[in-house]
Amino acid sequence: MSDQRPFDDERAKELENAALEAMKNSYAPYSTFPVGAALLDAQGRVHLGCNVENASLGLSVCAERVAVFRAVADGAREFTAVAIATTSDTLTPPCGACRQVLYEFAPELVILLINSKGERARYRLKELMPLAFTDYRAGDE
What we know:
The protein is of the alpha+beta class. It has one domain (9-127): Cytidine Deaminase, domain 2, CATH 3.40.140.10. It has 4 helices and 5 strands; from the N terminus they run αββαβαββα. It is globular, with a radius of gyration of 15 Å. The N and C termini lie far apart (35 Å).
């Protein structure tokens, strides 16, 4: 069932709370840096992700990419916002790899950051990834 309410402060708070809940499922025994993500698609569905680490660290996956991959597997291709929660005292934006994956689907994506002190910040993905790789098949844009 879709929920196409406008993206407002109330919806942002719900997304932030979902990211905080997703963070509880994080598997981060090596970095001890749990991350949760809640990705809102254009139909109003929320797709959750948490970071999943591995002893072979290169096989670890960030929470943001888990959320995107789950959403795509569920048929979503357009996204409105993502909330990212961490246990850090500082606000932590997505890594470069996650920014690029998110950019593939939503250059105008709203990014909400939440830290352990309850501080919040809001960005547009284009602000954080000004020179992203784009679809080379689309020509010069």
